[in-house]
Amino acid sequence: MTAVGFLGVRHVHAEDYVRALRALGTEPVGVWDADPEVAAAWAARTGVPVVPREELVERCDGVVVTSTTREHRDLVEGAAGRVRAVLVDKPLATDEHDAQSLVTACARTGTVLQTALPLRYQHDADAVRRALASGELGTVRHLRGINQSVDPSRHAPWFADPHEAGGGAVMDHVVHLADLYSWWLGEQPADVAAVTSAGLAPHLPVDSVCLVTLRYPSGVVASIDASWSRPDHDPVFGTCAVTITTSTGVVDLDLMTARVEQTGRRAPDVRWHLVGDDPVVAMLDDFLSSARTGSTPRATGADGLAATRTALRARGAARLRAGS
Amino acid sequence: MTPRPGAAGTGGTVGIVGTGAMAALHVRAWRRAGHEPVAVAGRSSAAVEQFASRHGLRPSADVVALARSVDVVDVCTPTDTHLAVGAAAAGAGAHVLVEKPLARTLAEADELVAACARAGVGLLVAHVARFVPAYRQVLDLVRGGAVGPPALVSLRRLGASPRSAGGWLADPARSGGVLLDLMVHDGDLALAICGPALDVHAAVAGPPAAQHATATVRHLGGAVSQLEASWSRPAGRELTSVEVWSATAELRHVQRAVARGLADDGPLVAVYAAELGHLGRALTGRDRAEVGLADARAALALGLAATRSAASGLVEPL
Fold first, then answer.
1. Do A142 and B214 touch (CB under 8 A)?
2. CA–CA separation, A237 vs B51, rounded Å?
C-alpha cells in the first residue's frame, strides 16, 4: 500500500482527504501538526495516529499538506526530495516569494508537487474543457463564475487571520476558478482587477466581499465572485457555478449539481447529498498515482503557482484601490 | 393646453419623437396609463406617416411643430440625438421626457438640462427598471431597513443582440454600446440601492452587436456592486437578476425568459405604463420624480466612466 501522511491538518479539507483515501483503500499512516493539541484532536476524530514529523516523512511515499497557508512552505520544503509526491492545499502561499520557493524546492529535488484544485476532476468541467478545445462551443467571450463560500473562519479561525491565510475571501476561493479558467482557455490573465471589503463579516480583520475581473490575452473577459456570502446554515460550503457565453450560445455549468436535496418539513434543516463521481476522490487517486510512480498530476505545482499569482494580483489590485 | 376630446385628461397630451420599437411601446403604455399620445414626429416623413397611421396619431412636420401642439414631448430617438431633439422641444414650450440614458455625453446632458431650464419646462429621463415590481420591492426592502445596509450587490441584464434595431445601438459612437445603453439600468439601480459611486472598473468582450460586459463599482458608503450586461445571449434565454447581501440577510430575484414564442408583453406594457404615468404626473408637477435629473446624470456618469475603464483597463474615479 502507498504510504501517505498528513503534515498540518488545520485546513478544513484534511478530513475530506482522509475519507477520499479510505474510499480508495488507502489508510493514512500518520499525522503531524505544529500544534500538538490540533494533531491529537484530529487523530482522535479520524483514527489516524500522531507520528513525529521527521519519522512521518521518512515513512511516506507521499505527504498531504493541509496546514494553514503560511505553513505550506516550511512543510513542503521539509518533505521535498524525501518523498515521491506532495499534495499541497490551495493557495500555495501567502506571498509570491514563498509560493515560488516551495515550487522550486520540489522541482530541484525531483519531488512531484500537486496542488489541491479539485474542479479539474469535476466531470462536467472536464467535458467543457474538451468541448472548448474542439471548437464545439464556439469562441469564448465571457465567463461569469461564482464560488461563494460560507464564512470558513467559523470552522477554522485561521482563515480570517491575515498572517496565516494572507487575506480573507480573496485568498480562499479565487484560485479555484482562476485555475479552471486558465485550464479551459490555455492562457493566464493579462489584467487582474478586484474589489474587496469587510462588509459581509465586519467583525473579521479580513475581506469577506471579493469580486475579481480578469482579462485574457485572447480578449476573453471573466469574473469571479469569491465572497463569503453564503448563509451559515448553507447545506454545503458554498456554491460553484460558471456561465460561459460564447460566439454560439451559453453554457450554464453548476459544479455542485450532482446532488440529492433533503429538506426538513418542520425545522429549517436542509442537506445536500452530493452524488456521482466525487472530484476529491479522483484528485486523491491522481495523488496516489504520483506517490507510487512519480506520474504528473492533473493540477501541478506550476498550475497552483499560476492560480496563486492571480489571487495575489487580485489582492494587490484591491489594496491599491482601497488606498485610492 | 386643452386635452383633446376623448383623452382621459389626467396628464395632458403627449407627442412622440421617433418611430422605432421603443416609440411603439411607449404609445401603448401612455394609453394604458390614461394619457393621450396625439402626434408623432421623426427623421423620415415616410416612417412618420406610417407610424402615425398604424397607431392612430397625427403626423407632425418636425419636433418644433409637434412640441407646440402637445404638453409633453417623449423623445424615443437614438441617444446621440437626445440633446438636439430635447432642446428643440423645450424651445417650443413642451415638457421633455427622454429615454435612458439622458444623453450620449455629460456635456450634452448638461446642455439639455440648461436648455430646459431656460425654457422653463420640465425634463425627466425614463429609467424603466425602477418601475419593475421586483426592483421596487428590493428598493423598498433596502430603504425600509429590512436587510441592513447592503455590502454586496449583483445585477445582471443579459439580452439578445439588438442588431435588428436599425443599427444605431450596435454603433458605440451613437449608443455608447452595452456598457452605456444597457448597463445604465443597473448602474442606476446600483446607485439607488448602494448610494453614490466612488469608482468603477469595467471590461467588455465580443463584437459591437453582441457585447458582453462586466463592471465592479465601489460606493462611497462602503458597498460594492457587480454589474453584468450582455447583448450576447441566445434569443429565448434572456435573464435579469438582482441580489443584495448585507451582513445579516440576502435578497435575490431572478427573471428568466419564458420559452420562446410564449412571451406575452402585457406585463411589460404595464411596467412602462406605470413608468410613463408617473413621469407624466412628475413633469406636470403632480408627483415627485422617482428618478430625478441628478439620478439620471449620475447613472450616465457611471456608464461613461465604465466605458473609459473598459478602454483603458484602469479603475476610473467618479
1. yes
2. 56
Number of H helices, E strands in chain B: 11, 13
Q: Does B315 touch chain A if contact means CB atoms closer than 8 Å?
A: yes
Minimum-distance CB partner of A221 among B214, B234, B315:
B214
Report the alpha-carbon distance of residue A16 to residue A10 in Å, rounded: 12
Can you list the alpha helix ranges (DSSP code H) found in chain B?
Answer: 21-32, 45-55, 63-69, 82-91, 106-119, 133-143, 172-175, 177-181, 183-194, 266-283, 293-312
Please answer whether residues A172 and A293 qualify as being in contact, where contact means their C-beta atoms are separated by less than 8 angstroms: no
Decide if B212 and A211 are in contact by the 8 Å CB cutoff: no
Give the integer Cα–Cα distance in Å for A204 and A237: 18
Share of chain B above pLDDT 70, in %: 94
| pLDDT tens, position by position, A166-191 | 999 999 999 999 999 999 999 999 99
Measure the CA–CA gap between A21 and B143, rounded to whole angstroms: 51
| Nearest-angstrom CA–CA distance, A124 and B9 | 60
User: What does the block give as the cell for B309?
Assistant: 475603464
**Distance from the B234 Cα atom to the nearest Cα atom in chain A, whole angstroms:** 6
Give alpha helix (H) positions in B144-291.
172-175, 177-181, 183-194, 266-283
pLDDT in tens, A236-250: 888 999 999 999 999
Q: What is the ipTM of this complex?
A: 0.91
Cβ pair A223:B226 closer than 8 A:
yes
Partner-chain residue, chosen from A144, A213, A227, that has the shortest CB–CB distance to B201: A213
Q: What is the 3-state secondary structure (H, E, C) of A131-153?
A: HHHHCCCCCEEEEEEECCECCHH
Window A:201-230, CB contacts with B under 8 Å: 201-202, 208-209, 211, 213, 215, 219-223, 225, 227, 229
Instruction: Give the residue carrying C-alpha cell 415590481.
Output: B133
Beta bridge partners of A242: A145, A253
Is 0.90 topped by the overall pTM? yes
